[in-house]
Amino acid sequence: MAEIHNELKWSFSRMKTFDSCRRQYYLRHYLFWDGWKKDAPEERRTAYRLSKMTSLPMLAGAIVHNRIADAFKRYRFNRTSISLNEIIETARLDWERGIAESESGKWRTQPKQYCCIFEHYSGVPDWKERARDMWDRVETSLRSFDASGTWADLRKTVPVRWLAYDGDPFESVLVDGIPVFGRPDLAYDGSKAENPKSRCWIFEFKSGRPRDGDVLQVRYYALVAAADWGFDPRSVKARLVYLHPQLIEREMSVDEDALADAGRVLRQSFDDMKSVLADPEHNIPLDISAFPPTVRSDLCARCFYQEMCEGRGTEASRPAAAALEDEDDFDPFV
Ligand code: SF4
């Protein structure tokens, strides 16, 4: 098998980690590398294991996204609509398997294969109760998806014009010469036959509440749509679909100023990431001392790497209820 290399690729979530805690960025994007090998140094193995950890909100988000991707897949390939009951029952099995895997402890030796849940791992006393509440989020989100006008609209479209969806294999795309990871849940070519590449629709489903970052993320999707599918980025329209606690379907466009701003931030952010490399060509980082821990202790409370971070991971930084509730939902491009 060809050897894989740790390549520097930009993503919105990578930028968020870089900007919020350099130490976490180092552990998640560099120290973890090779940590899947049995003979790797212990600290690399630990960083790798922790990089595979999830949390209850993240697990909920991942299951909701996977079920929606499966509904898309079935519709795309044979135009069948999966029933809500089947969606929920499959999600329930996924959810119960995640909880059981975490309790089994098999992730200690096989962190990629078995789920480890942060709230369980860090000894949150009422984690089982939280898990029950979080299941309600999964179920409500899937019911919202099934009832949404967006899903009804998508089933009126021609699947051959679907450009990409969550279940597709995905490589990074070059935007302005920068390899970028990031793709919406679904994209659709809505151009009229007489005016090709004049309208790209982007759909993004969220199992958490609306956040400012959601709008920013759409700007990068517009850049990806231009680079990957040849649309004018100004032709991109997006629909953000919030599934919990209640259904909100919000449409937005990306104007020229927003696109210029996204391009500028992307270039600056990528340069910043390269500035902490000893060898940019091979993506080799500077010494760990160039990646200081954050001074924002609110971020530490929900950080998976507390045990690898001096002075963190104490009783005082145990995950607080409020901090965990605010946690990001699913993002495959971490
Ligand atoms: S525990 Fe805090 S300082 Fe340490 S890596 Fe995590 S967020 Fe950064």
Summarize the structure in words:
There is one protein chain. The protein is an alpha+beta fold. It has 2 domains: 28-147 and 293-326, no CATH class; 160-275, no CATH class. Helices cover 45% and strands 12% of the residues. It contains 12 helices and 9 strands. The chain has helices at residues 12-20, 22-31, 42-51, 56-78, 84-104, 118-121, 127-147, 149-154, 212-229, 256-274, 297-300, 321-325; strands spanning 162-165, 173-175, 178-180, 186-189, 200-206, 236-242, 248-253, 277-279, 284-285. A 5-stranded mixed sheet has the order 1-4-5-6-7, with helices on both faces. Strands 2-3 form a two-stranded antiparallel sheet. Strands 8-9 form a two-stranded antiparallel sheet. A hairpin with a 2-residue loop joins strand 2 and strand 3 (178-180). Helix 4 runs antiparallel to helix 5 (84-104) and helix 4 (56-78) packs parallel to helix 7. The chain is globular and about 60 Å long. The two termini are 25 Å apart. 37% of the residues are buried. The chain binds iron/sulfur cluster (SF4). Iron/sulfur cluster (SF4) binds next to helix 2 and helix 11.
